[in-house]
Amino acid sequence: MYNLLLILHSVVRWVVVIAAILAVGAALRGWLGRREWSRLDDRLGLLFTIALDIQVLLGIILYIVSPLIQDVLANFGAAMEEPQLRYFAVTHAVLMIGAAVLVHVGRALVKRQEDSAARHKRAAIFYGLATVVMLVAIPWPFIASYARPWIRLS
Prior knowledge:
The chain is mainly alpha-helical. The chain has one domain (about 1-145). Helices cover about 80% and strands about 0% of the residues. The chain is built from 6 helices and no strands. Helix 5 (about 85-110) packs antiparallel against helix 6 (about 115-135).
């Protein structure tokens, strides 16, 4: 079960990244291009929110069943002195939950606006911040200390 969760978490990462790029791109295009808020803009924000929620849920389940995290919790103090263990036990989880909060706050604020320009601006700001936080928190293959493969298949 653990390996299946790792694979799903790895694959869904790309769905989230693509959804983020689409939502932020639409918001920026609408804000800078002064166009009306459309159903597509709303759907892209919803897609980003749902994809990130699924990813965070998979991450929480992984956190619970992960042998790595079980080792960390067994000796938390010592684990916090190890950068890789600290990253997965604290940094990655906190940043990703923070990104999800930003997306949800942004989506709620967007829904409350009636003016298209204000909707696009808020979506661009909150979805953009969430995307930056996510991109910082992802364990990319080129980051030596806690690298993970581009796509985990086993």
